[in-house]
Write a structure and sequence with these properties.
The complex is a heterodimer. Chain A contains no helices and eleven strands. Chain A is mainly beta. In chain A, the strands form two sheets. In chain A, strands 2, 4, 5, 9, 10 and 11 form a six-stranded mixed beta sheet that branches. Chain A is globular and about 40 Å long. Chain B is an all-beta fold. Helix content of chain B is about 0%, strand content about 45%. In chain B, the strands form two sheets. In chain B, strands 2, 4, 5, 6, 9, 10 and 11 form a seven-stranded mixed beta sheet that branches. A four-stranded antiparallel beta sheet of chain B has the order 1-3-8-7, with no helix packed on it. In chain B, a hairpin with a 2-residue loop joins strand 5 and strand 6. The relative contact order of chain B is 0.32. The mean pLDDT of chain B is about 95. Classes of the chains: A mainly beta, B mainly beta. At the A-B interface, strand 4, strand 5, strand 9 and strand 10 of A face strand 4, strand 5, strand 9 and strand 10 of B.
């Protein structure tokens, strides 16, 4: 059973508009969440993270929101740029010292000029 | 190099053949992870090393999978008697552990294994 779910396999957005990527999780022990971006033939690249003690973290055009009661997080990209076109993975950790990540299946974002 | 390096980038194996996949982590990174990513899926955890110690191998799908990191740096993932279901991208990641589990993992580009 998937513990981290990204229910939208794909998303298409116009350049300059907001992209919103969603992620749901089921394990209440998860307390650290990350977003990775992946271009074809490359490994996932870290984008932004959030700890469960916060409900928002911002880095430039990227903002992650966490709603613990709903077990939901979202990544907002404003404004979207064609170079943002990639697969975005949501990942979670249960905070154990080991830190292995549980990933969603990813959402493919296409930003059209 | 500054990043995680994996080789080979692509490997084609005949069913039943043994393969070895190499990972060079970022220098100084104590923690090393292997993940398997099947087509259309997210990466799935295979195994974890802290220095040379393999502390978790709970994600290895069968006893045909074996990983080692003898000197606490380079790691090798070995798959014996490959099967078609082993076809996937194998990703290696490394991190500096803070002991909190809130570490950024840096990934290599992966090895795409195709078993015919």
């Amino acid at each position: 059973d998937q513990q981290v779910k990204q229910n939208s396999p794909s998303l298409s957005v116009q350049e300059g508009r907001i992209s919103i990527l969603n992620c749901d999780y089921t394990n209440s022990m998860f307390d650290y969440f990350l977003w990775y971006k992946k271009y074809p033939a490359e490994g996932p690249t870290f984008l932004i993270s959030i700890s469960s003690i916060k409900d928002k973290n911002e880095d430039g055009r990227f903002t992650v929101f966490l709603n613990k009661s709903a077990k939901h997080l979202s990544l907002h990209i404003v404004p979207s740029q064609p170079g943002d076109s990639a697969v975005y993975f949501c990942a979670a950790s249960d905070g154990g010292s080991q830190g292995n990540l549980i990933f969603g299946k990813g959402t493919k974002l296409s930003v059209k000029p | 190099g500054a990043g995680v390096s994996q080789s080979p980038r692509y490997k084609v194996a005949k069913r039943g053949q043994d393969v070895a996949l190499r990972c060079d982590p970022i220098s100084g990174h104590v923690s090393l992870f292997w993940y398997q990513q099947a087509l259309g899926q997210g990466p799935e955890f295979l195994t974890y090393f802290q220095n040379e110690a393999q502390l978790d191998k709970s994600g290895l799908p069968s006893d045909r999978f074996f990983a080692e990191r003898p000197e606490g740096s380079v790691s090798t993932l070995k798959i014996q008697r490959t099967q078609q279901e082993d076809s996937a991208v194998y990703l290696c990641a490394s991190s500096l552990p803070s002991g909190t589990g809130r570490d950024i993992q840096y990934f290599g580009a992966g090895t795409r294994l195709s078993v015919l």
